[in-house]
């Protein structure tokens, strides 16, 4: 069977049935773990303390331009070593609200 002939739609339906809904959000594992050894996925929110001691919340996103995962201005490999996953954009959007 070639990849062109594989019906991904039926696979998606099967997984949705197993999950229990058709609104499941699929996130890509980025190949890194945070300072607590937790896997990091696209859409995760990382709590990061910068060099002045200020807390920042960084969102892991895919950058087509950079062809890599990014977290804003902080390099993703540095942010993940120094930061910790505290949620994601789907379940914890309040972490990104400006107070």
TrEMBL record:
The chain positions of domain YopX protein read: 25-97
Alphabetical list of Pfam families matching this protein: YopX
Question: Matching NCBIfam families, A to Z?
Answer: phage_TIGR01671 (TIGR01671)
- Any idea what this protein is called? YopX protein domain-containing protein
Per the UniProt record, the source organism is Liquorilactobacillus mali KCTC 3596 = DSM 20444
> Could you read off the lineage of the organism from its UniProt record?
Bacteria, Bacillati, Bacillota, Bacilli, Lactobacillales
């Amino acid at each position: 069977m070639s990849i062109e002939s594989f019906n991904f739609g039926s696979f998606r339906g099967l997984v949705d049935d197993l999950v229990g809904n058709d609104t499941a959000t699929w996130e890509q594992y980025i190949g890194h773990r945070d300072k607590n050894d937790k896997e990091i996925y696209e859409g995760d929110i990382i709590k990061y303390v910068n060099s002045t001691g200020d807390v920042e919340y960084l969102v892991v996103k895919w950058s087509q331009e950079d062809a890599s995962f990014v977290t804003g201005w902080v390099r993703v490999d540095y942010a993940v070593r120094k930061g910790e996953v505290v949620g994601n954009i789907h379940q914890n959007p309040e972490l990104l609200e400006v107070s």
